[in-house]
Write a structure and sequence with these properties.
Length: about 550
């Protein structure tokens, strides 16, 4: 819950700090005094985008800071998901710099506004006059149904299964699209694939062929070079091997006289063996050389075919052709295996549809079981709030059409007068009736939703007298389980608060600013007397005001 709200250099406020009670707090003040500034400051803490015009002194930065006690609200996992340090006493700060740049911090860690908004949903529920209209919004209505039905687990189950079905359907459509595309190019792709397969491509093939081509194209030169090499190696008297044999003989004799030369002798002997092996291999290579024009023609033809394929498919090597061949095989297989793939895809969709249907029906049943609780609770509270003949119903039906919310539809209908037909709530309810219905819904949600703080901004608009008293009683009852802050013009509600703040304006040095102070004792009695519209100094007005303090 909100413990402290600090506001500096924001709108008409220079510097204030408000400490709130755990239960029911009241904020009053004349129209235009600055009550909306408090809401604006809270909205900034909840992630609303900042407006440079909100800075009071354009040369100083604006700071909004909120201290929250959140130890009993199980928010540690949310902090972890948002990569924030969890503290039971959490501090949120927004800063608007004179340059217009806005910064946000949670426990002194910089955060994005999107993360701040996600966190704010779990800290404060601001119910403004504008939000009264949201009761006719489908998303809000589903939220109420699922909160009262405690549907968080089954909703998550539905969400996961709905996403999976959507993915299967998207993949199925891709298969059909690819099939159509494959049909259009199938014959040509088969021709291209056949052409590449006939080339019997393999990694390194081009290099092998080009090497063999060079050899056969220069066979006479090769014969000359190898012949000369063999001659130098194996010439009877002056050849390398003949010389090495003599060296080897003399080194062996020397080693017999000096054992230290044994290693040197072994090395010479090793060289001799290697030279003899080279000579033998050279002779073998020389004898194997044979000019075969037919083989050379075949290699030239095969190489030219590879070069033509590379040019045709816009690649520079055989590896690129192999990759193209693999792609063509995949495209051809799409066509050839299309029917099987489509059958498998459809089977997945059918199976997932049945799973989703079971979850959707379970979700609908839990919502359907809840509508009686909501309808009877709202009707009962509307009777207490001065609409004794009100009829309120939530009507549901299973549609079998899967949407992100479920496979059902719900309609909220209302009638304020006996004998009047029930019609769509947002079309027939007046502003005052919507305020009372909203309060009834919020009161019901307070029993099911673990929300630290709720702020009502003039939810009492359009009501007065005894009805205002009953609205105040409802909010006071809500404050026994959560923190309630109410901005109000009605003394009947203001008198029920555990603490009472007054917003007022002053003018100093031709500058207007908003101030706020906590009222106690006689100050509070005088404020209520003024709100009653009487003479705040008269005994009767003060007595009436005193009677409102409960």
């Amino acid at each position: 819950m909100l413990r402290v709200l600090g506001i500096k250099n924001f709108a008409l406020i220079e510097d204030i700090s408000l400490e709130f009670t755990d239960h029911f707090s009241i904020i009053t003040g004349e129209t235009g005094a600055g009550k909306s500034i408090i809401l604006g400051a809270l909205s900034l803490l909840l992630g609303k985008r900042a407006d440079l015009n909100s800075i009071k002194d354009s040369e100083k930065k604006c700071i909004i800071e909120g201290h929250f006690s959140i130890g009993s609200f199980n928010l540690s996992s949310l902090f972890e998901a948002l990569d924030l340090d969890y503290e039971e006493h959490t501090i949120i700060r927004r800063e608007i710099l004179p340059s217009g740049k806005s910064r946000a911090f949670v426990n002194d860690t910089p955060v994005k506004l999107s993360n701040l908004s996600e966190l704010g949903v779990h800290l404060i529920d601001i119910h403004s006059q504008h939000e009264t209209l949201s009761i006719g919004n489908i998303d809000y209505q589903y939220s109420v149904l699922d909160t009262v039905a405690q549907n968080s687990k089954v909703k998550q189950d539905y969400k996961v299964n709905f996403k999976l079905l959507s993915e299967y359907k998207r993949h199925f459509e891709e298969l059909k699209f690819n099939q159509v595309k494959a049909d259009e190019t199938y014959d040509y792709n088969v021709f291209l694939l056949s052409e590449l397969k006939e080339a019997k491509l393999k990694t390194g093939l081009q290099e092998e062929l080009e090497s063999e081509q060079r050899k056969l194209s220069h066979i006479e030169e090769l014969e000359e070079k190898l012949g000369q090499s063999f001659q130098h190696l194996d010439e009877e008297s002056m050849g390398v091997i003949s010389q090495l044999r003599e060296v080897n003989l003399q080194m062996r004799k020397a080693a017999q006289l000096d054992t230290n030369l044994e290693e040197l002798y072994r090395r010479v002997e090793s060289i001799l063996i290697e030279a003899e092996d080279i000579s033998s291999e050279t002779q073998s290579q020389l004898e194997s050389l044979e000019l075969d024009p037919k083989v050379l023609d075949q290699i030239n033809t095969q190489l030219q075919h590879i070069y033509n394929l590379q040019k045709k498919h816009h690649v520079s090597n055989v590896e690129g052709l192999i990759e193209t061949q693999n792609e063509l095989e995949e495209q051809v297989s799409v066509k050839e295996n299309a029917e099987q793939a489509l059958r498998e895809g459809q089977a997945k969709i059918d199976d997932q549809t049945e799973k989703l249907k079971a979850v959707a029906k379970s979700l609908f049943k839990s919502r359907q079981d809840t509508i009686k609780v909501i309808s009877s609770s709202v009707e009962s509270m509307l009777s207490d709030l001065g609409i004794p003949d009100a009829k309120f119903e939530v009507r549901g039906s299973y549609t079998s059409v899967f949407t992100p919310k479920g496979a059902d539809e719900f309609e909220w209908v209302f009638s304020a007068n006996k004998g009047s037909a029930l019609q769509d709530l947002k079309k027939v309810a007046s502003g005052g009736e919507l305020s009372r219905i909203t309060l009834a819904i919020k009161s019901l949600l307070a029993e099911f939703e673990n929300l630290p703080t709720i702020v009502f901004d003039e939810i009492d608009t359009g009501v007065s007298g005894d009805i205002a008293t009953k609205m105040g009683s409802i909010m006071k009852k809500m404050s026994s389980s959560l923190q309630v802050i109410s901005i109000t013009h009605l003394p009947q509600i203001a008198g029920m608060g555990e603490q009472h703040f007054k917003v007022y304006k002053t003018t100093e040095n031709e500058k207007t600013r908003s101030n706020i102070k906590i009222l106690k004792g006689q100050e509070r009695v005088v404020e209520l007397a003024e709100m009653l519209g009487g003479d705040k100094t008269s005994v009767s007005a003060l007595a009436h005001a005193q009677s409102l303090l409960k």
